[in-house]
Amino acid sequence: MLHRIRTLIVKELQALLRDPNGRRILIVPVILQLALFPLAATLEVKNNTLAVLNQDDGHESTELVERFSQAKAFTHLLVLKSQSDLRENIDMQHALLAIQFPADFSRKLAAGETPSLQVILDGRRSNSAQIALGYVQDILQTYLLERTPAVQVQVAGASEIVVRHWFNPNLDYYWFIVPSLVAIITTISTMIVTALSVAREREQGTFDQLLVSPLTPGMIMIGKAVPAAMVSTTQATIILCAGVFIYGIPFQGSLLLLYGAMMFYILALIGFGLAISSVCATQQQAFLGVFSFMMPATLLSGYTAPIDNMPQWLQWVTWINPLRHFIVIVKGIFLKGMDVSAVFANVWPLAVIATITLTIADIAFRKKIG
Q1: Which tens digits make up the pLDDT trace of 246-281?
Q2: pLDDT per residue over 288-334, tens digit each?
Q3: Which pLDDT band holds residue 151 (cuts at 50, 70, 90)?
């Protein structure tokens, strides 16, 4: 039995690696996502344009404008002449936000009064605009404290707030993206390899040969699953090494725990992939099935949006999503050295999902054969 399974595994790997399209499917997504995601898929606000309508021209407003222009969020400063210029530049998305200084801003500030300052955000880019507004507020607060040392001393004497960012001290977005890529790349490779396996056999006319061979349906499933696990584990290792040696992200946890949890995750994905493969007649249909799985799985994983922000019923639905649990595991092990108990709290749902999906895949596979 082991010899038959090993022979089928070797055949699957040869069929996958011999085909140029198969090699591209395995290599190109890893390279593209590793190169593009850490640079493009970021919520950091950098290199944006700040529009300023300064109707004051006093010393205080001029200094504030200079400070705003030195922020990393704003590398371009757009000086406006009128309200119509402000409206036009926001409408045309030439600026992420605009700041308007009234004519009496410097005078009121010098007299110890509280001047008004209007900030207009582009609501079409609400997330970036809100983050940029936070930068503006921090710069303004720092400037006001520097102008009133007595208040600064009084506030510091009363209480001092010290902010520490655990597990990502500098809030580097690479530290969030790259560990998540380990989970996402593993998902893509496992789903594609398993979903295309049976469909490819049908298109090439070799599936009937498997049915008349001494292989049982269970052996065929194992022979289709093991190559997917080998390929996805290899790709995950590449991402892991790139995160440590290229992006300089420290790996804090245990490799044994990470790969052990990954096996349960891959088993859960194999169940989904084989179920899709068993009901698809062509590779095109299998691709559509993988896409139909990947989009909701990514959206409901907590990668793009916090799960706590979702409706309660949708939070319950995310429990059956294996990507949700594995992203917690891989980021926890990678960044904070998650211990065995914390890993187990997210592994046992993967084991339950794997049991259910593999059972469904086995039933669908046997039904299709029959």
Answers
A1: 888 889 989 999 999 999 999 999 988 888 887 777
A2: 888 888 889 988 998 877 888 889 999 999 999 999 999 999 999 99
A3: very low
Q: Both tokens of residue 298?
A: 């990514």
Q: How large is the angle between the packed helices 283-299 and 255-279, nearest 10 degrees? A: 130
Distance CA 118, CA 101 (A): 7
Burial class (CB in 10 A: 0-12, 13-18, 19+), 323: buried
Give me the residue spans of the domains in the chain. 2-41+176-369, 48-158
179-193 b/e (C-beta count within 10 Å ≥ 16 → b): bbbbbbbbbbbbbbb
Chain centre to alpha carbon of residue 163: 25
The CATH class, in words, for 48-158 is alpha beta
Please give the average per-residue pLDDT across 153-178, as a whole number.
67
231, two tokens: 């390929």
CA 64 vs. chain centroid, Å, equals: 35
Own/partner contacts of 54-58, CB < 8 Å, gap of 24 or more, are 54/79, 54/101, 55/100, 55/101, 55/102, 55/103, 56/101, 56/102, 56/103, 56/104, 56/105, 56/106, 58/105, 58/106, 58/107, 58/110
d(CA 227, CA 32): 22
Report the pLDDT averaged over residues 51-61.
Answer: 86
- Average pLDDT over the chain reads 82
Q: What value, to the nearest 5°, has the Cα angle with vertex 181 and ends 175 and 183?
A: 120
